[in-house]
Every structure is written in structure tokens, then in C-alpha cells.
Amino acid sequence: MNFDKVQVFWNNLIVWASQFAPKLIGAIIVLVVGFLLIRWLDRMLARAMARRETHNSLQTFLKSVVSIGLKILLVIFAAGILGLQTTSLAAVIAAAGLAVGLALQGSLANLAGGVLILLFKPFKVGDLVTIQGITGIVNEIQIFSTILTTGDGKMAILPNGAVSNGTIINSSKSGHLRVDLVVKLAASENFNRVRDVIKNVLEQDRRIKKDPEPAVSIIDFDGDFMNVFVRPFVDMEDYWPVYYDLHQKIQQALIANGMKAPVSTKLAPQQAW
């Protein structure tokens, strides 16, 4: 009697194996070929992004997203070949993805912001920018955050969600910065002479650009004084050296030309980064 049960079991097992084996072999072939195709697509995507000079962080992120997404679809397709209920499996994966998405809502917003920044490149590493009221040099652009170094040497870490949705002022986009100086002189001084002396100082400094041309003009009169606006353009790395040098050079030039020493020279507040 036991022998008959064993014989029936083996017969059923052989029948099941003969029916399941082709499906298993087909699923294995699909997985092997599919993984090879995904690897080839990864290489093609990497080459395409390299030709477009896409940021390394974005390359890694996009390759991971595409690779994981395609592998999940491949596994679901292979499971369908084996006869499994792929609808239920897809529903479970979708529910898990929704739960994770809700739990990481803030992080996903920063992730999306980082992708937008790396794709559209409103600024790059080394640019002087003002974001969320913070002005500094872009030190690093990451997937989730942007890191700035402020003028006083502090590090500011800004979430990319807020960065991509806020106002970005890129002072380096044009390739140069404007040094804004206000020189306060006696109103009795001849402005034409003052302007010629200051322009001569600017022309002798090779760090100051000829185009755009530096401007020297009167802003306003303050009682017995006139405020003269001096606005030369320089490369970003020359901003502070030129700013400090011009104070001394303008003062010395005005005194050498028989004018009274300027009462004050100061930085216009919009450039105090």
C-alpha cells in the first residue's frame, strides 16, 4: 500500500516537473537575457550622459533608478512566466513604494530638487550665489543638498527642495563681478577732475575689466558733501583684493592732485557678501 502511494507521488512529481520545467527554463532564459540587456542599457545611458557632460552625482542617481526599475519589471515578467500572480505582486510593490514615498516625502522633494539643479545647472561649483537669503561660494552640489561657503568662512547646507523652488541670484553667471565703492568728498570739489583722477586709477589696474566699462558718477549730495559712486568690474577671484586696493589708491591719487582727502569710502551694501 505504501509502495502504491510512493509510486503515485513520483508520477505526480514527474508530471508536475514536465509541466513546470519549460516555464522555469523560459524564466531563467528571460532573466539572463534581460540582465544582459539592462547592463548594456546602463552603459549606453552612461555614454549618453557623459557626452552631455551631466554631473557625476546625477549620472549615478539616474543609472541606479533606471537599473533598479528595469530589474523590478524583469523579475515581475519572469514571475508571470512561472505562472505566479503578477498583479498581486505588482500591487504589493506599489503599496510598499507608496508607503516609503509618504515616509520620505521631504527627502524625495530634496531629491527631485537636486535632479532639477543638476539637469538645468542654474549654478555650478565655484559660483557666487544668493539662495534663501544666504550669499556664498558654491562648494558642492549633492543630490539632496547644496553646500555654500559664506564670506565669513561658515558652511551653509541648503536642502535642494527649497533651493530649486526659491529665487537664485547667480553673481558669477556673467563671468565677472562689480565692485561698488562710495567715495564721499566735499561738494566744492570739481567733479570732472575727481572723475578723471579716479578713472586714471582704474585704468592703471590690470585686474579691472575694460568691458563693461567702469563707471564713476555722483549718487547724491549730502549737505556739504557729494557721494561719488565708483563701479569697476573684475573677475570673481579679484573682487576683495581690488576692493581693498582701490580705497588706498583712490585716496592717494586725490591727495596727489591737490584735493582734500575723501571723508569716507565704503562698500555698497548689496555687494557685502
UniProtKB/TrEMBL annotation:
Family in the record: Belongs to the MscS (TC 1.A.23) family.
Signal peptide bounds: none
Keyword Manganese: no
Species assigned in the record: Chitinophaga horti
Domain of life: Bacteria
Membrane disposition: Multi-pass membrane protein
SUPFAM superfamilies (alphabetical): Mechanosensitive channel protein MscS (YggB), C-terminal domain, Mechanosensitive channel protein MscS (YggB), transmembrane region, Sm-like ribonucleoproteins
Keyword vocabulary terms for this entry: Cell membrane, Membrane, Transmembrane, Transmembrane helix
Protein localization: Cell membrane
Bilayer-crossing regions: 20-41, 61-84, 90-120
Lineage: Bacteria, Pseudomonadati, Bacteroidota, Chitinophagia, Chitinophagales
Protein known as: Mechanosensitive ion channel
Domain Mechanosensitive ion channel MscS: from-to ranges: 107-173
Domain named Mechanosensitive ion channel MscS C-terminal: residues: 179-259
